[in-house]
Amino acid sequence: MNNKEMFFSYSTYLKNKYGKPAFRVSVDGGFSCPNRNNDGSGGCTYCDELGSLAVYHRGQEASIAHSLPENLYHPSPFSGRGFSMAARKERIARQIDEGMEFLKRRYGAVYFLLYFQAFTGTFAPVKQLRELYDFALSRASFKELIVSTRPDCVSPAVADLLLSYRKPDLDVWVELGLQSSHNSTLSRINRGHSKEDFEKAFMLLRDRGLKITVHLIFGLPGEGRKEIMETVRYIALLKPEGVKIHNLHIPVGTALFTEYSMGELTVPSGYRHLSYVCEALKMLPPEVIIHRLTCDTPPHRLGAPRTFFKKGTFLALVKDRMHYSH
Ligand code: SF4
What is the number of structural domains in the chain? Predict the structure, then answer.
């Protein structure tokens, strides 16, 4: 953290560690999700499938138009992900090449971090995971391997495999979804795992010294300030290396959107989220890297909230508010 910052941001972490522009190359490895049925139905009530893809891999998302009611109940073209290994490798190679090209051109990227972002990046037999990770890592000189997953997809064998990639010049991070530490909320949003499952996965990774970023959502159904801060307090005690905070956003076509449309829940406004975030940042240990503070669902897919701060504005407000409350 530099002393002008009120919290340890991910951009500062990257700057401190690499000194030159370092960027994530997001890869969809063709994984599915154990929380979804084969036809793509089910899953977390806020998940519209496309949400876990990087922006530049969402080529088909125009088909999920805001104005097409029939799409509310039909799985997207990403369902039933039965790709062969050859097809998965071909896709991975293309995404890495195109992603790196884009990041070099747009941001002058010098260093690259390989990020298995889409769906559940450890949802496959270990042998298959090794083949996919090995292949992806062989495509370029990456500084980090980052895998996004769910607590119920972290076994000792998976954790050992991830650890096997850690080298002096290759760090390994796992992004682990918790969202809320309240089992009643996890059940209400159909997360398909408990707080205890999360803790077990967290400890498996922690025991091996792997770096962990925990995902949280502020404003889930049935949760207010008290419940959110209980989750933050719980995470503060675990001291993960990183935290990603999301404001509750409801994509069109999700089960949560149906609840919202029926008037069964409300969504925190930008200012409400701002107050949650500022309180949370004060509770988290200062060495925890804050990867994000809001969601960035594209407006044409977003059911609610329809008005929210832009990312930069929100960040400025956070800094401002924290500065004056010190
Ligand atoms: S675990 Fe992730 S990909 Fe699976 S349903 Fe939930 S949000 Fe969607």
Answer: 1
